[in-house]
Design goal:
The complex is a heterodimer of chains A (129) and B (139). Chain A has helices spanning 3-7, 11-30, 44-52, 94-127, and strands at 40-42, 77-79. The model of chain A has no long low-confidence stretch (mean pLDDT 85). A two-stranded antiparallel sheet of chain A has the order 1-2. With 129 residues, chain A is mainly alpha-helical. In chain B, 47% of the residues lie in helices and 17% in strands. In chain B, strands 1-2 form a two-stranded antiparallel ribbon. A two-stranded antiparallel sheet of chain B has the order 3-4. The model of chain B has no long low-confidence stretch (mean pLDDT 89). The chains are: A mainly alpha (129), B alpha+beta (139). At the A-B interface, α2 and α4 of A face α1, β1 and α3 of B.
Chain lengths: 129, 139
């Protein structure tokens, strides 16, 4: 990782994982009336520690190789355990999906804000004003 | 993996729920269509929903899957038979046939479909807000 990548901290990984989570939650909401559909989600804590763990990241053997560790291919997906099973085998529970979706969106925006302030700090440092 | 995927996924649901609402309207509109034989009677329509990916792919993909309507099936429910010898459409035994449309069930389908539609519209709006927010990072 170059110095500039480090300056952004975990925010790029967070945004990538939040995007994946948003996709999965959208799919859950879209399939709320599909028989036998199983609701899916990622374990954010586990995914985050994997993304930050150096040993699980790709090593660059040449300095001109691209550093792709910021752009993860996505965390492993898990199935949700429903609190009330429905007769048609669908495990989507709308209230849970809605709250998870909203929470995810707010946290995405929070990360975007952090990224924003880091960029502003960098800019101040460069300009020296 | 991008935020636009989420919009596409939600859009598949808008389409699926629209088809579902169409079948509900069709069933309710034809609930009182009378006919003179069992074969000519309107059969209630039922859309079949399935995820965009098949089951084998679903486990491997880290992405969400949209929804699609694989078929609109005609119900096998036998038509209601009524003895009405005076009816102009009655058969030689005096029976008329009305479709086996369950109005309460159709109303429930309608409510569920409109709720699902609203949910996906909401999801699209939120995703759009996030995309716009992302575009202004560092401004």
């Amino acid at each position: 990782m170059s110095g500039l990548d480090k300056a952004f901290g975990v925010s790029p990984q967070v945004l990538a994982l939040r995007t994946q989570k948003l996709n999965l939650l959208s799919a859950n909401i879209a399939n709320a009336s599909t028989p036998d559909y199983k609701a899916r989600d990622i374990d954010f804590r586990a995914a985050m520690s994997t993304a930050l763990n150096e040993s699980s990241q790709l090593k660059r053997t040449h300095e001109q190789h691209f550093d792709i560790n910021g752009a993860t291919s996505g965390a492993p997906v898990k199935y949700r355990v429903p609190s009330q099973a429905s007769v048609d085998g669908n495990t989507v529970e709308m209230h849970r999906e809605h709250t998870a979706f909203m929470e995810n969106a707010v946290r995405y925006q929070a990360s975007a804000n952090f990224l924003d302030s880091k960029i502003r700090a960098l800019r101040t440092a460069i300009k020296g004003e | 993996m991008s935020l636009f995927n989420a919009i596409n996924i939600s859009a598949t649901n808008l389409e699926a729920q629209t088809i579902r609402l169409n079948t509900v309207s069709s069933n309710l509109a034809n609930a009182n269509s009378v006919s003179g034989s069992e074969a000519d009677t309107y059969k209630p329509l039922e859309p079949l929903f399935a995820p965009m990916l098949n089951q084998a792919q679903m486990g491997m993909s880290n992405e969400g899957a949209g929804v699609k309507v694989t078929a609109v099936m005609e119900s096998n429910e036998p038509a209601n038979k009524e003895y009405m010898p005076g009816h102009p459409l009655a058969d030689e035994e005096g029976f008329i046939y009305t479709p086996a449309v369950d109005q309460a069930q159709e109303a429930a389908h309608m409510m569920d479909a409109s709720q699902a539609y609203k949910s996906s519209v909401e999801a699209i709006n939120t995703t759009k807000a996030l995309i716009m927010r992302t575009l202004t990072i560092g401004r």
